[in-house]
Design a protein that fits this description.
The chain is α+β, with helices and mostly antiparallel strands. The protein folds into 2 domains: 28-231, Replication Fork Single-Stranded Dna Binding Protein (Replication Fork Single-Stranded DNA Binding Protein, Alpha-Beta Complex); 232-270. Helix content is 40%, strand content 24%. The strands form 2 sheets. Strands 1, 2, 3, 4, 5, 6, 7 and 8 form an 8-stranded mixed sheet that branches. It has a two-stranded antiparallel ribbon with strand order 9-10. The longest helix is centred in the C-terminal third of the chain and has 43 residues, at 246-288. 18% of the residues are buried.
């Protein structure tokens, strides 16, 4: 068998092997992959314990990622930036570049809304929910030096590598609400030195987890990004199996309704005219043929 044929058959088998395909996960299971220091509604403060997992090959466990913070349908969303994370085309980033090139003060101010923000993403274990497995903690870079990363760095400087599996430390995160009611991390402290886990099976599962933030924080489709870049509202259209602008759909529905009403009016007018003409014809014929069919 030729090498070319081997390659062809191998490619086909790889692409048709259902066992190699990753199963879809439910929203509930996906939520278990997120760790957040944010307070739930109604809570004024909270303390959480988190163990940062060591990165492989001696790299920093903190990955830098970029997300837009945009208001979509009345809620703020963090939207994955295809341009800065993957070097790919991103309509929102293109809109930002266009505004900057325009050069006016107003355009530059508008460009801020289209500018992706730097975040850090780190993998670790939520000590209060260890059964959830490896989680991803995402927090924003703070340019004023008062963010989560700024509170973590003193711990590394004073205590060493707190991510070490045998001689590392859990971190204790305290969150409260500020005067605006927003969740704010007020302090991060170290716990005593502890081993990550005594369970070898659990340790292997945690260390061999190959997921990245790019798999957990999903990318939006190009049409979704295009709609957001135009400050419109993306909604899922099941008939077209893609996102469309709610404003365009409403406009189309209004136009279709107006057209339907117009058709109905035309049909009604035609029916009325036909009915009147028929009635006049019947009455005229009856009078002209005499009274043979009359009962008197």
């Amino acid at each position: 068998m030729s090498n070319s044929l081997d390659a062809i058959l191998s490619q086909y088998e790889n692409n048709t092997d259902n066992s190699s395909k990753k199963p879809k996960i439910s929203n509930e299971d996906r939520l278990k992959k997120y760790f957040t220091e944010k307070l739930q509604q109604g809570m004024k403060n909270a303390t959480r314990r988190f163990r940062i997992l060591p990165a492989k090959d001696g790299k920093s466990p903190f990955e830098e990622a970029y997300f837009y913070e945009r208001q979509v349908n009345g809620k703020y969303e963090k939207i994955y930036c295809n341009k800065l994370n993957d070097g790919e085309y991103c309509p929102i980033y293109e809109a930002k570049e266009a505004l900057m090139m325009e050069g006016s003060k107003k355009a530059k101010e508008m460009a801020r809304e289209y500018t992706p923000r730097k975040f850090y993403v780190v993998k670790g274990i939520d000590r209060d929910n260890e059964d959830h497995g490896v989680k991803f903690w995402r927090f924003k870079h703070n340019y004023t030096g008062n963010g989560v990363m700024d509170k973590l760095m003193p711990l590394f400087k004073l205590k060493g590598d707190i991510t070490d599996a045998r001689e590392g430390r859990d971190i204790i995160i305290t969150t409260t609400r500020n005067e605006k009611g927003w969740s704010v991390v007020t302090s991060i402290m170290c716990d005593d030195v502890t081993i990550l886990t005594e369970d070898s099976t659990q340790a292997n599962e945690w260390f061999n987890n190959e997921e990245t933030y790019k798999e957990v924080y999903s990318r939006k489709s190009p049409e979704y990004l295009e709609i957001v870049s135009k400050n419109m509202t993306p909604v899922w259209d099941s008939e077209q199996s893609k996102y469309v602008a709610e404003e365009d759909r409403e406009e189309k529905e209004t136009a279709d309704l107006s057209q339907e009403i117009s058709y109905l009016r035309e049909d009604t007018t035609t029916d009325t005219t036909t009915s009147v003409d028929s009635k006049e014809e019947v009455e005229t014929t009856s009078l002209e043929t005499g009274g043979d069919d009359l009962p008197f």
